[in-house]
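Thread: "does anyone have the structure for this chain?"

Original post by V.I.:
We have the sequence but no experimental structure in hand. Need at least a predicted one for the grant figures.
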Amino acid sequence: MVISTNTSAQSAASLLMQSSSNLSQSLARLSSGSKITSPADDSAGLAVSMKLSAQIARTGAASNNVSNAISFNQTQDGYLQQVNSALTRMSELSVSAQDVTKTTSDRALYQQEFSTLGAYVNNVATQSFNGVSLFNGNTLNVTSDSEGNTFSNLGVNLGAASYTTATADDITSISGAQKALTDVKAAITQLASDRANIGSNEETLGYYKNQLSSLKNNLSAANSQITDVDVATESTNYAKQNILVQSGTAMLAQANAMPQTMLKLLA
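Reply from O.Q.:
Generated one for you, tokens below.
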């Protein structure tokens, strides 16, 4: 045994350093909830996790876009339900104005209501959703996934001739009322087609939303497998490393004390 080089103490110190490092790493994992507290923990896993996290964020953004598009379509249909009521009443007035027992004055009253309803329909055509026109007929390309692919959301054009012709009619004469009836019926037919398109838009966007929600959940689960710490397993490891640190500290103290026995040989 020599005094100048205490190999036992050096070995014990090295092992204690390793145990202390492992204990600190285990504590960091438990406190952060992540298995990867630094790139050195799992460099490949970190790279995969970063890509998954970015895709999860993009998927969430796409889901928000789809939800907003659904709200856009629902707003459109809310207006068109009222337009349908207005056109239905206008068709009724067109038939009433053809009554041969009605006077010119009577038809003038019908025309007043007819014109008011027509103005309402024309006003609806100018409405917007967050600054985006609801009824200019433009097709909106809605981002439908994390890679930027889009769904063509068909538009509705309330400024089309089938609507404006009907709203501009005059039912103060029987012949005018007959023409108005034909035009309003054409407008109702167009409205039915437009509302069907809106329904199709909503249905398809609903599928995209469900798909994105499922994808986001699955991506989150996959990322969790890579990064989230298993608390039960890590708690066991923490207890193990804590014991090793305590025992290593005790053994280092013993190793440092061993050279003192050499002094007894000089007594």
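V.I.: this helps a lot. The first helix runs from residue 7 to 32.
O.Q.: and DSSP finds six helices and four strands in the chain.
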